[in-house]
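Reader question, answered in our methods column.
A reader sent in the components of a multi-part assembly and asked whether the whole thing could be modeled at once rather than chain by chain. We filled in our standard form and ran it. Here is what they sent:
COMPLEX SIZE: two components
ENTRIES:
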Amino acid sequence: MEALYYIIFLPIVTGILLLILPERLKPIKAGITLVVALMVLYMSIGMYGQHPEIISLPLVPEAGLHSSWMAKTLAGMSQFMSFNLDHLGQLIILFAAGFAAIISVYSLIYVTPQKKIFHFYPFFLITLGCAMGAALADNLLLFLFFWGVMGFTLYKLIKGKDPRSSAAAKKTLIIVGASDGIMILGVAIIWKLTGTWSMSQLSLATASSLEVTAFITLLVGSFTKAGAFPFHSWIPDYGENAPPPSSAYLPASLDKLLGIYFLARICIDLFRVNPTLTLILLIIAVTTIIIAVMMALIQHNFKRLLSFHAVSQVGYMVLGIALATPLGVAAGLFHMVNHALYKSGLFLSAGSIQEKTGQVDLDQLGGLSSKMPVTFFSALIFALAISGIPPLNGFASKWMIYQGIIDFGQTGGIASQLWIVWLALAVLGSALTLASFIKFISGIFLGRRKSAFDNLKEVNFLMWFPKLLLALTCIGFGVFATSWVVPHLFQPYTGTIEYIGIWESSTVSLLVVFSLILGGVFYLLGNVKNMRTADAFLGGEAIQEKAGYRVTEFYNTVRELRPLKGLYDKAEKSWFDIYYLFKNLFYGLHYVFKVLHTGVMTTYVIWIFAGFIIIMLWLL
Amino acid sequence: MGEILYHFFVYPGLLFAGVIGGLLAWFDRKVTAQVQFRKGPPLLQPFYDFLKLLLVKETILPARGSRATFLIAPILGLFGATAAGTFILLPLFNINIGFEGDVMVIFYLLTIPSLTYIIGALASGNPLASVGASREMKLIISYELTFLLFFAAIVLKADQHMQMSQIIQMQAQSGPFISSLSGVLLFIVGVFCIQAKMGMVPFDQAEAETELSEGSFIEYSGTVYALVKLTRYIMLFILPALLVGFLISGFNLSGTGIIWAILKILAVVLLMTLIRNTNPRLKIKQAMRFFLIGMNGLAIVAIILTYLSL
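And here is the structure of the entire assembly that came back:
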């Protein structure tokens, strides 16, 4: 399996070599990055559909160096180098490589000297290699290595020059790093319980408290990577401050793919989840959906708005996978792929807007649809897809999730009895998503255009092509959802799916096309000759620039609604942010210790003697 | 494919639903006139309105808005209504061609018309339309949960079957769902939901003639507005039909069954018309609270009663 070497180590090694190249050679670095990403994509496509197998890769090639000290050490390490090339891993590397290729095209614009992200391309490639490694590793220690490096590159892909973004970078590193530390604990427990590092040999029941602890620690890791409540709080800060390609690359696509990949691994393969844990998972899922989307609803900064959706959508994936039926798991994975498609597209669109206008605030924009038609078209497709409008891909996966929930309602048990709650909150989340994307789309593209933007031009090919490609994929995945996408991409892993509802995506999509044609005919039949344009009618009043009704004011009613107002106020003071809670806890402890550490010798002596006496009493 | 196209565009889809919807619109206006001691329009008035808009009236496009979006939105709205209508009416008329959508599909297709009203309104760049659009969206997020609970309760009553045909069949075997206490509560919830979906008083905040002069639709005129009108005619037929199919055991189209079917639809429309003629418009905040607390509470009670099989 030489290809396996290449898809993992080629990007990592190239990335490390690129670190040495001086920053002046940026265009060359960008070119190499694109070529490597495309090569990895090519090889991942080649690997797709292979028969699942466990592969051990010796670290040292057969030839030479047999007896040297180095070779022996490496040979000792080789026992950890086992990879599991199963259907799930193949799926993940296929999409991870695909997103890396698309985003590396988009980030070619970062070769210009003004846009300084130090070592963007090297870390981009190292991330890619580690993602490949994490998705394929069978050995838990090897997995932890790749997983941990990805947390570090995440930190390096945000600029961190001004105070805000460096605070965001620090927060990200601390939350992600802490979760990785917790995962190590879980892996250690697993080793203690079973004596193996190999994921493919594990199948633990979550019966004893040790097993449950191991499950929860690993769950924390996957939730932090994917960004589920309550470990989500790094994503909004990261998305707001990081350059858009970084947000599109990590929190929007690769981190989601890996986080949900690992969630599926632990829930389906490593552990057999007990009913109580299923209930907890479902509660976390719907909480994630609702809380994040409610926060998104009141944002003014569109990058932050998108980031909150990157959290909210995770809830649907967790919901699907927690159901643990073939339908639910396939739905969760399908939603993961869909989310990566439209969310990375949305971040890239946000990047284009920021690039052209220099604005990130919805209040300052409006009416750009005719100036940036390709960006508008793709952003509209992404927005409708994420809101679950049929026949786009977001609808298809949500529909499968809803079906999974309804089907789950027949199985019995407390979590199953509450199926209406899960369903209702998931659908409510979807409506709220639509509401906040109305704000996004109309705030940027619709409405009256400011005269400042009259001379705006569409972004260049390198920036619009990736978005268009993603938008067309969104449409394609929606149109062929039940006929091609699910059977070919997800059924190999989950097994045959039995639907309880019917959704004929291809036929309905065809009807959309026919309807558009018919609508055009209507317009032609009608009196097009009479069409004329006029400025907006306000009942005779003159239109003033300031008189407009801004989209950011749309949901003030919701913001001010009584039970919600208090919650929003608290949320804006970071009350529900685990990072701030822990920060305050540590500052509190610090305060206690500060009081104790007076610097007066006698106090210390008293403490020492008191401790001595206690130890003595205990020993006696 | 030809068969599907026929069912989608002619019967019981676009053309049929449009005609019946137009007649129901006349019924609604006639009843309104009777309530207000007026004579009311002739039977074909809705069709005159439609054709006049389509063929005669001039169409004005917003000068500083997004024109393509403004024009495409009503077409997609019409698609949403027609597709939902096809999926609702095919099982109701007992036409089985293997082209079906389950209740979740219907639920989502039914949101498309309101969504396109919002997008079209925002594309016009008119501040009054913006106000209308924001109210429409807030109305959607408040009734969507209630509407979903209504759907979920029906699915629960139908033993977790999520296809319209199965739900109707189930009622044919064991009596209409409305014959239980929970069914009655669900009917009340359902009527208010479709009232809001239609944007009828007391939930017409988005249009609000007197304060926003048609709000969302202020910039629409001529041919483009004709499509909006047609969409609304179709919605006026398919939403009551949905209610009838879900709770009052659908249609039985043989012999006197046809008269019963017509009466069922007319009864629901009459109820909606009477509600709209005897109530004032709510503020958007009141409407949100009405659904969030009142209607959701009622729906939850109905679901609990269903669990207790009452």
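What stands out: Chain A touches chain B through 76 residues (CB under 8 Å). The CA atoms of residues 15 and 122 of chain A lie 4 Å apart.
Send us your own complexes using the same form.
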